[in-house]
Every structure is written in C-alpha cells, then in structure tokens.
Amino acid sequence: METISVKSLNELMAKEAINLIDVREKEEYDSFHIPCAKNIPLSDVYHDKMSLDKEDTYYIVCKGGTRSRKAAEFLADHGYNVVDVMGGTLAWGEMFPRS
C-alpha cells in the first residue's frame, strides 16, 4: 500500500486539492483536524465507501496510523485508490503546531 509523510502531504495540499479522509471519531476530529479533511469514522467507512469515486485518490488519516491503515486496506481491497498518511494527526501536529 502506498504511504505519504505529513510533510509530503502538506506540500501536495499546497499544489492541488486532494481528497483527505479522517477516520477518527467525530469528537477527535472536532477537537483538531488537518485542513480540508472530511470526517468519516472508521466504523462508517464500511458503509460510506459506496459514495466514493473509484477514479479518485483518497488520502486516509487517523491519530497515529492504525485506523487509517485498516481503512486504507479495506478500501484498497474494494478497488479504491488510497494512500495512508504515516504518523497521522500526531505527526501533523508535531510538524505543524497550532499557534
């Protein structure tokens, strides 16, 4: 499975619009999330996948990497183009601290 670092993700986001899915629970997402991320909790990924376009690429993120890997594997197994964001929002917060 393809992966991307938060640094490379940030560089990509500066160049183009991307489909970033945050698979954390709503409360986690509401407290902090990466700009442009859409919240689809892991528990809902199995149901919401049908609304995703198989022609697009989806970047999957969670807090540290475990849930995003599960979601990315599930979606990839169903024919979706996915990239797992390594380190999740923890790595994002360390690299790009909130002011």
From TrEMBL:
Source species: Streptococcus urinalis 2285-97
Domain of life according to the entry: Bacteria
PANTHER family per UniProt: FAD-DEPENDENT OXIDOREDUCTASE, SULFURTRANSFERASE YTWF-RELATED
Family matches, as SMART domains: RHOD (SM00450)
UniProt cross-references to Gene3D superfamilies, sorted A to Z: Rhodanese-like domain
InterPro entries: GlpE_sulfurtransferase, Rhodanese-like_dom, Rhodanese-like_dom_sf
Protein name according to UniProt: Rhodanese-like protein
Domain Rhodanese: 14-97
Pfam families named among the record's database cross-references: Rhodanese (PF00581)
